[in-house]
Amino acid sequence: MAGFRALAREVRDPHRHIAQRRTALRKCLERFAPYGHRATWHHLCLRAGIAPEDRSPEPARLIRALEELEEARAVWLGYEAQFAERRRQEKHLGIRQPSAVDDWHLRTWGGCDIVPCESPTAHPHGRLAAVLRRMIEAMESAPGDTCPICAEERILWREGLDRYPPAGPVCTGCGIVVPAPVLTLEALASARRHRFERRYAGV
Fold first, then answer.
1. Which of 130, 177, 166 is closest to 35 using CA atoms?
2. Rounded distance, CA 116 to CA 100, Å?
3. Model pTM?
4. What is 63-76 written as a DSSP string?
5. Among 26, 85, 94, 159, which is disulfide-ready with 167 (CB 3.0 to 4.6 Å)?
């Protein structure tokens, strides 16, 4: 199975048919997809000016999408290296119990669903790398009361999410499923309270 870099070379290969190059980019998302496969694809297409179902996009637009994905992947690989080094040091000091942040990181190891989105067509604006930097900063900081990506205050608890865990706080601004460790207990309680208010509003 080809790795991310090999697939990236296929995307750039001018001797390949454009449909093959597009397929290679889609396969890159099987190795690295910060928002999840479908949401990341939708984001890249939107940013590069590609129709998601276009089988023959302009090569320059395809490369633009790949470059944004590569930039974000470089940010994530740097973080993973720092994380691995920190865990080695902690284990050397006898700290074996992983934290809530470590639990989040283990679920996102490899770069998929780092910043999962409730809907494949609703995701943060801006470059993927910038969004990842904000999320990493939030995970390494004290919990807050707002979305770590867009600073939206209204966060609602959703159930039946197409991911694990199947329920969690969702930002009404940018659409991400907010990792619980970055929110205060008060913010999480507020998200759950809004859920019940919506459920019983018509009763």
1. 177
2. 17
3. 0.88
4. HHHHHHHHHHHHHH
5. 159
